[in-house]
Specification:
Two copies of one chain form a homodimer.
Chain A lengths: L1 E3 L3 E4 L4 E4 L3 H18 L6 E4 L4 E4 L3 E2 L2 E8 L2 H7 L6 E11 L8 E2 L1 H6 L5 H23 L3 E8 L1 E3 L5 E3 L8 E5 L9 H4 L5 H13 L4
Antiparallel strand pairs in A: 1-5, 2-3, 4-5, 6-11, 7-8, 7-10, 8-9, 10-13, 11-12
Chain lengths: ~220, ~220
């Protein structure tokens, strides 16, 4: 299967539309670099190889109908849902599962509901949560070395033909909240969601830091 | 502490107000009968003794800030949240935890969030879910013998001074969805919530069946 990385941007369950110039190629490069890091850490991903600046060849998987969110710092829907100030550091990372169901606004599901709704088996829920926490660990270290705090991120998993779970998603400023460690500046899609300006520049900055060799 | 059973009825996070004539004394009698059944089944409750037709003396506890919902059949907010038809029988009972927080509409929390939000310890979450499922088992049997399907119910738990968790709530047609097994008629607060009429009669019918000796 070929994934096409577009410049289109959407937010708030597709209620907001727009374009971020050059986002597709930037997100492809960021994702490929990070997914390679995941593979090195023993987390299997769907990546096969890059076909062009916007095209990524990936293994065909059956996508688990869960958006898996890991949070290190309070932000976004978590802050809103529970009335907690953005920026509070959680005592430990939190995994939240949401049913991929646009018609109902991707509602939160607890682990038992995920099973009863037929979204994943009990074993898969356990495995997905463990994998997501492992991804968080690697990703936090990776961004930390680059002066970026990983606030939260969303990933999806797929079932390969052999039944194995693969990380089957992009990992980019579209799907992560990334705050500069020093300035706390947002380097992610929140700049687009909240009309903060400097959207392209933020993605470029993340790309630069992701690709720059670490001393 | 003295619990006062009033005739006031509220719904939809207190957006709907009303009165159900004679509800207080009926709910007190229903609750007392059912909570005695729980004690017999080994589930500790806060009940001490009845003081009057509207007053119940209970042990003072620190209420855990969770609304614990157990569902056997799809209805209410679960049906709405996930877009599933009311009446679908779940493969097994589902426990859902909601943060008792009117200002934010009692939002759903998963088990990890309940801990991270400081609502309960990891051990308490496990114990509360196990107790809730045990309550469900006893309650389902009790209503089943009386020709009533237990669709779902909400309970709260409290920490006694010795740290033990007690069932610390009423159990009545205010907090349970009860459907007549034969006619599927609703015998609970949904008659009030949805303006179905026959509200008092439904509570009377539940009281009658709850107090009637079983052959």
């Amino acid at each position: 299967v070929v994934l096409l990385f577009k410049d289109d941007a959407t937010a708030f369950n597709r209620q907001k539309f727009g374009t971020i110039d050059g986002k597709g190629p930037m997100n492809l490069r960021i994702s490929v670099r990070i997914l390679a890091e995941m593979e090195r850490a023993g987390i299997p991903t769907h990546v096969v190889r890059v076909l062009s600046e916007r095209e990524l060849l990936v293994r065909k998987v059956q996508i688990v109908q869960l958006e898996v969110v890991v949070r290190n710092i309070v932000a976004g829907t978590f802050a809103k849902r529970y009335g907690i100030d953005e920026g509070r550091v959680l005592e430990r990372p939190l995994v939240e599962l949401f049913w991929k169901d646009d018609a109902h606004g991707d509602p939160l599901v607890n682990d038992d509901a995920a099973q009863l709704l037929g979204l994943a088996t009990a074993d898969e829920v356990v495995a997905i949560k463990a994998l997501a926490l492992r991804v968080n660990e690697v990703l936090r270290g990776f961004f930390g070395e680059r002066g970026i705090d990983l606030v939260d991120f969303k990933v999806e998993f797929g079932r390969a033909s052999d039944g194995r779970l693969l990380l089957a998603d992009e990992i980019s400023p579209d799907s992560c909240r990334l705050w500069d460690r020093g300035t706390k500046q947002k380097l992610d899609k929140d700049r687009f969601r909240r009309d903060l300006g400097g959207v392209e520049e933020a993605y470029q900055e993340v790309l630069r830091r992701v690709e720059e060799p670490i001393a």
